[in-house]
Hints:
By secondary structure, the protein is an alpha+beta fold. The chain has helices at 3-21, 39-58, 85-92, and strands at 25-30, 33-38. It has a domain at 24-59. The chain has a two-stranded antiparallel sheet.
Amino acid sequence: MRISTILIIIVTILLTIVLMQNTEPVRFTILFGSFYVSKLAALLTFGVVAFILGIMVGRPKKARSIGGGRPYEGDDDDDTDTLSDEDREYISHP
């Protein structure tokens, strides 16, 4: 087994133990209303929401260009050579 798999199993077991130890109801007050819900449901809900937000924030974003991303006239996307002659001369001479 890989180390990451073992780590995921250990974290899952510890999370399950913590959730099962907290099953008594607690009172939540949101704005003008209050209600009772078990700590298990509250912790699980907040954990799932935090996990989803972490995935959304942590994933890499697509690169965006300023100005709507439309290429201007004369823009050649296939041109991978971006060095000027002066830069090439500087690099080639030690």
